[in-house]
Amino acid sequence: MKIAFNEGTTWESATLEQNLEYCEKHGYDFIEIRAIDQLIDYLKENTLDDLKAYFDSHKIKPLSLNALCFFNNRTKEDEEKIIEEFKNYLEICRKINCEYIAVVPSNIDVTEKGKTFIKEVNESCVRVLTHLSDLAEPYGVKIALEFIGIPENTVNTFAQAYEIVKEIDRHNVGLVYDTFQFTGMGSRFEDVTEETADKIFIFHINDVDGLPVGQMSDTDRVWPGHGVINLEAHLKKLKELNYDFVASVELFRPEYYQMDPEEVIKKAKETTLEVLEKYHYSQV
Predict the structure, then answer these.
(1) What is the dihedral of CA 78, 84, 88, 91, to 10 degrees?
(2) Residues in contact with 53: Cβ distance below 8 Å, sequence separation at least 6, in sequence order
């Protein structure tokens, strides 16, 4: 299992350059780049050629761009903007040899109708993601749909997200399996069947404070192994599915933003490895 760092973990405390430096120093294999802000800031004083040169000369490599946000059930005008943003992400992926783009479903407050029936949500997701799949194919880029485990998101369980991906049935469209998102709206392990194995592209590891289902938020995330998520059960399930690609640590804890970012990056890896080793998931 490779180890990745998601920039959300130091979103308010470090630049992309700092994250790369500290992740390289502490032995991470991959980084998930926040294309929506930290990459934009980086490109104010650097180029994609600079970023490509860094990856070419260091161990750490790009895992994904995070993220194409709120793509479904939008107005026609908004959807057109989303498509253009995705095309830009594809060019970035080509330039820096990044294989994945994470995509995040819409919260209801940005959708065209507000509260929307599941059937309409799923139909919109299938239509838009199929189009994105067509666009991504020549680039060799894969799309990782991340369901969001909060009540206000339109795709908030593993089962719903997999239903969408299954309907699309494209080799380059799969899922982000995030332990926080899974827990947030009570996704069920029985829905993570052998059939889903090939569609789990990226695994996000994290933990959360002991709040009721439907009341957890990103700011309640904590170091892996320091909360109430049954990480043993998640890792056992992934092992059953023969998933051994990458564990990417993603936290949004305000207290962690007040810490030295290098210490956060170091501790994030240490706590992730402690969990993996505790439950017999070896690092490759």
Answers:
(1) 150
(2) none
Q: How far apart are CA 103 and CA 29, in angstroms?
A: 22
- pTM for the whole structure: 0.96
Cis ω on the peptide bond leading into residue 35 (within 30° of 0)? no
Check the CA dihedral 108-112-114-115 and report its sign.
Answer: negative
- Buried b / exposed e over 155-175, threshold 16 CB at 10 Å, is bbbbebbbbbbeebebebbbb
pLDDT digits (tens, 9 = 90+) for 220-276: 999 999 999 999 999 999 999 999 999 999 999 999 999 999 999 999 999 999 999
Query: Which residues make beta-bridge pairs with 181?
Result: none
**pLDDT tens-digit readout, 3-48:** 999 999 999 999 999 999 999 999 999 999 999 999 999 999 999 9
Distance CA 165, CA 235 (A): 22
φ, ψ of residue 187 to 5 degrees: the values are -60, 155
DSSP string covering 150-206, please?
STTBSS-SHHHHHHHHHHH--TTEEEEEEHHHHHHTT--GGGS-GGGGGGEEEEEE-
Cβ-based neighbour number of residue 114 at 10 Å? 9
* CATH architecture of the domain with residue range 2-278: Alpha-Beta Barrel (3.20)
Tabulate helix, strand, coil % of the chain (nearest 5): 50, 20, 35
Instruction: Report the DSSP beta bridge partners of residue 222.
Output: 207
